[in-house]
Amino acid sequence: MSLTTESSTNFWLTRPFSERSTQIFLGVLLAALALVTLLHVAVPPGNPLHVGAYTVNLFGKYLSYALLAVAVDLVWGYLGILSLGHGAFFAIGGYAMGMYLMRQIGDRGTYGHPVLPDFMVFLNWDSLPWFWHGFDMAWFAFAMVLLAPGLLALVFGFLAFRSRVTGVYLSIITQALTFALMLAFFRNEMGFGGNNGLTDFREIVGFDLRSDATRLGLFLATGVALALGYILCRAIVTSKLGRVSVATRDAEARTRFLGYRVERFQLFVFVVSAMLAGLAGALYVPQVGIINPSEFSPIFSIEIVLWVALGGRATLYGAVIGAILVNYAKTIFTGVMPDAWLFALGAMFVLVTVFLPKGVAGLFRYLKRRKREDQTTDPDHQHTSKEASA
Amino acid sequence: MRRFLSLALLCFLLLGATLTAQAQTDTANNSGSDNTGANDSAALELLEALDVESYTAKGEAITAILQSDDERARDWLQALLDGRLQRTEDGRFVLVLENRGRDWPVADVLTGEALGEMSRRDLERIGINNNLRNQLRSAIAVVDLYSPNVERRRTSAERLLGEVDGELVPTLDDLIEQEEDEQVRYRLTQAVAIYRAEAGEMAGVEALDGSLHPRSRVALSRAANSDDPIVANAAAASLAGIEQQLKLNRGLETLYFGLSLGSVLVLAAIGLAITFGVMGVINMAHGELMMLGAYTTWAMQQLLPGQPGLALILSIPAGFMVAALAGVAIERGVIQFLKGRPLETLLATFGISLILQQLVRTVISPLNRTVITPEWMSGSLVVNDALSLTLNRMVVLGFALVVFAGLMLIMRRTRLGLEVRAVTQNRAMARSMGIRATRVDIMTFALGSGVAGLAGVALSQLTNVGPNLGQNYIIDSFMVVVFGGVGNLWGTLVAGLSLGVINQVLEPWAGAVLAKIIVLVFIILFIQKRPRGLFPQKGRAAEG
Fold first, then answer.
1. CATH fit for domain B248-365+392-543, picks 1.10.287, 1.25.40, 1.10.10, 1.10.3470
2. Residue A177: its chain B contacts at CB < 8 A?
3. pTM (2 decimals)?
4. What is the total count of domains within chain A?
5. Which residues of chain B have pLDDT under 50?
6. pLDDT (tens digit, 9 = 90+) per residue, B148-172?
């Protein structure tokens, strides 16, 4: 977060690339994508180095979580808004994708109805609800992946920021938002498959979802989306807009008195973040093959915040590290000793907030600084990072 | 054969269950009748009187049986009617359980004990004629109405509503004349009136005016379709009046349920109002502290089996202590390191809530535990035929108000309350005046947590006690606190009760889930309008 260094280039979108952390992050990400692809395609199955389709799928899931975490870090780290409802945007993006995938099934469902998805036939509906129209077209569905969460964030954010709801209050009402949506989506009458959600997907833009090649493609697409999302967020936080956001985070009233329309900056960043979360959800759904209301649960949203906190808030790459670490741990734990997972998760919440307030990324930076201080006795710390808590 | 036997047994058991339930109240009421030996010889005498030639004498014997307070009388009369009351060769009375085939299974009339099978030739039936049959039929319907026990007459009279036929009416009219108990007489009159109204008689319609019993309404709506326009009009008018009354009663019931739900919300939120409002600490583990309180009640009932009431009373201080100690541990272990960072506190306490939930799942069970409701809390207060208020909810409502009053007293009238308010308003100043702020923090958090424990004890009487108990209430509790205005106990009370009532008012036409969603959306919008809640803090404390 080098707010103090004025970057050499002027164009906002190229500015992130001049930063060391972005270069390293993109390098590592691309190397990882290439490596996994290579190990999956080139190394024959049976070889211990071979990466199976299941693992590729799992990594793809982690990457979509990482994108979600980046979105949360953008609002929490740089805007000081602890959103406990980002799971809602993620899930809405996921539902938009799920609706597209449902329509792609066509007449191959259990009931073989040419238009209606299985659950609607089961509920004896005779026509498609109005909001399901258009989702048979890929471009429309993919646009909705961004627009639907964006619109919700726009309305919600407009109301909230205009009346200066901040801090804890905002956190609690975002939680209420996702809780209300969860209850709503559990209802069959909503037309989103109720309890069971949307599942049984077959293909995406003509590719069979069950084939290994499609899975690899989705994994790579998620990786690219993560890279682009990361660059976008980095571009935002290094721009003037980003600096106003940080100023808002640290001293909202002062920024307001300096003449900035704080609520507009907040609203813009919040909507961008929600759209990124929606994109993450849309990439997540075809890889796990189901979307149901449990993605709206407040616990999931709060878990996302833990990923960011563990990785290191206001670093963006920390969010990625946190998301992958926690979810990898979850995969291991739930496989080996499922009962212990909630203990571990709970302990992580406590330990990270108490002992590791800047997360893993903060630990890196601390070690790096110590090293540099040992080498040169330069008293000027260029990072007087004031990660004041909101 | 076997199926029939088990069916008969089932009927017998069902009947027996209701009768023993009555018998228990009987023995409690007239202590003299527990001498079974004397009882049996008296019963035998009654039965002997049946085995005579003259049908007139038999009729008198039946009346005698009716007027005896023997709980087996109904069985005997039913058996007599069915021809299953028989006599063996050695003069014993038996009930024939099934009279098909050559050998019949029989049971002793007095004890109900099965005596195995007997050949039909060894048995002699006690015969009756048509007159007696009619007498028996109506007698069995009203057998309990002759009982000297008031409770039994009341239940029996209630059972008669809508079951009266023409033959019974004269008998009932006689009984109404003789009846001393107000309630029984009211029910019997009602039962007769229902019969008359359904038969299209004006007297019945008039008598049913204003009656809220569902059966009365059925009768009246039938009378409203009667051929006689006068009767039909009167019935329709009565019905309209009754509908009005019912609407009122339904409104009252909704209000009661709303207040009850609200009292639960208040209980859950008021501890939070202290820790969140007064200390600025977001305790996401608050719900789990409630869960601890509920489990304390369960554990107490395990320790004191057979005394659920005592256990519940003892759980009140115990639940408070357990939750308060857990709260102190949380405060000392985690929250004190996160002072001034409310969002981090939120995350850390959420972690604690996960750990506590999983701990209960691992140590006790992931399944719900049963907490018994003591007798003095079960049942309901019957106001009228359309409105009865469940007692456990009433107790919880009262409990919530008492807890609220106690907290108000502590905050307004004690030294602790004074210190808490001082620290809330200006920590540095309070400390320089000699208030030990850390100690105040601990005490406040213990108090807030303890109240959560109390809420758990109360909740154990209304909902399932399981590991998810707290989770279900945490979002609602935050909503109540935010809605009411942080740092304001009155606000919490008003917000909790009104949200409860709003929820219940919405429920009938929106459904439970949608009502909840509407309430959540309402609060979200309300916060936009008034970010500091219903009753915002004024003055310096508001700037914090």
1. 1.10.3470
2. 520, 524
3. 0.78
4. 1
5. 1, 5, 7-37, 541-544
6. 777 777 777 777 777 777 777 777 8
Mutation target vs B (from A299, A354, A387; most B CBs, 10 A cutoff): A354
The answer to whether residues A67 and A226 touch, using CB atoms and an 8 Å cutoff, is yes
What is the Cα gyration radius of chain A?
22
Q: Residue A58's domain spans which residues?
A: 15-294
Q: What is the dihedral of CA A159, A160, A163, A168, to 10 degrees?
A: 160
Beta bridge mates, B534? none
Q: B488 to chain A nearest CA, in Å? A: 15
Q: Which chain B residues are within 8 Å of A310, Cβ to Cβ?
A: none
Interface test with B, best of A168, A313, A326, A387 (most B CBs within 10 A): A168
Q: What's residue B20's pLDDT?
A: 43
CB A276 within 8 A of CB A300: no
pLDDT band for position A25 (cuts 50, 70, 90): very high
Tell me, what amino acid is at A120?
M
Where does residue A337 rank: exposed (0-12), middle (13-18), buried (19+ CB within 10 A)?
A: exposed
Among the listed residues B290, B315, B281, the one whose alpha carbon sits nearest the alpha carbon of residue B451: B290
Residue-wise burial string across A355-371, b where 16 or more C-beta atoms lie within 10 A, e elsewhere = ebbbbbbbebbeeeeee
Which ipTM value was assigned to this complex? 0.84
Give CA–CA dist A147/B110, Å, rounded: 81
Task: Count A/B contacts: CB-CB distance under 8 Å.
Answer: 123
Is the residue at A374 inside a domain? Answer: no
SS3 (DSSP) at B92:
coil
CA distance B259 to chain A (A): 22
Q: Which residues of B lie inside 8 Å of A (Cβ-Cβ)?
A: 282, 334, 337-338, 340-348, 350-355, 357-359, 361-362, 475, 478-479, 482, 513-514, 516-517, 520-521, 523-525, 527-529, 531
Query: How many percent of chain A have pLDDT more than 90?
Result: 57
Residue A5 lies in a domain: no
